[in-house]
Amino acid sequence: MLLQYELALFYCGMRDGPRKDPDHKAQLGRLLTHDAAWRQLAWTNVMSLEHLAGAFHPAAISGSTVAFIPFGPGPVSGFKLLIQQFPSALRGTEIRHWELQFQLMSVHDTLMDSSQDLLILLECDPLSGYTTNYHIYSLTTGRPHPLAANQGNLEVPDGRTISISASGVCGDYIGATAYNPSDKSTHLVLRNWKTGAVKVDAVSVIF
């Protein structure tokens, strides 16, 4: 059954996520059902979410979960997100929403991985607009993620700046293009958010 599952993953152009299910038969069934649903693109339900109407715009998406930022001026005491989880029979999720508020005044990017209960906010200097810190939280509670290094606060090293247009999270790593103003070099940086260690720091003129 494991071999069938691995072949089906290859056929569907997918790979296993960080969470492992020992029941390969159930995994195979979910995978094939998911693939068929994408090929058919058939609606399974329609609902109205009035609490989102005209008030929020999406900042990040992961699986069946979307993070929304309110339109207009934010709260004077920090940064606010509304997290909306959509129902999915394939993912086993139900509809629900909750709000998170953080004592951060300038956030320029939001990264999310719902499979790891992971929310990363990139804090920037309000004058320069450059990223100064990664703040790593639990997506469900808004508290520092229990697996994150340094209580969920990683500083950008060496005085570099992070490009808002090129940042992302995959597994244990945050990836970003970073600019070092001292020598005007551009880097591709991969950093482990659990340990804080830099895995890759490659210099290039084409990033």
Structural topology:
Layout: H1 2-12, H2 24-40, E1 56-62, E2 65-70, E3 79-85, E4 96-102, E5 107-113, E6 118-124, E7 131-138, E8 153-155, E9 161-170, E10 173-180, E11 185-192, E12 198-203
Antiparallel strand pairs: 1-2, 2-3, 3-4, 5-6, 6-7, 7-8, 9-10, 10-11, 11-12
Helix pairs in contact: 1-2
Describe this protein with a few key phrases.
single chain, about 210 residues, mainly beta, 4-stranded antiparallel beta sheet, 2 helices, about 15% helix, about 40% strand, globular
Any overview of this molecule?
The chain is mostly beta strands and 207 residues long. Helix content is 14%, strand content 41%. It contains two helices and twelve strands. It has helices at residues 2-12, 24-40; strands at residues 56-62, 65-70, 79-85, 96-102, 107-113, 118-124, 131-138, 153-155, 161-170, 173-180, 185-192, 198-203. Strand 6 (118-124) and strand 7 (131-138) form a beta hairpin. Helix 1 packs parallel to helix 2. 22% of the residues are buried.
Order of strands, widest sheet? 1-2-3-4
Apparent shape: globular
Characterize the biggest β-sheet: 4 strands, antiparallel
What is the strand tally? 12
Integer-rounded radius of gyration: 19 Å
Order of helix and strand elements from N to C terminus: HHEEEEEEEEEEEE
The end-to-end distance, rounded to whole angstroms, is 42 Å
How many H/I helices?
A: 2
Uncertain ranges: none
**Beta-strand residue fraction:** 35-45%
Which structural class do the helices and strands define?
mainly beta
- Helix fraction bin: 10-25%
* Mean pLDDT over the full residue set: 83
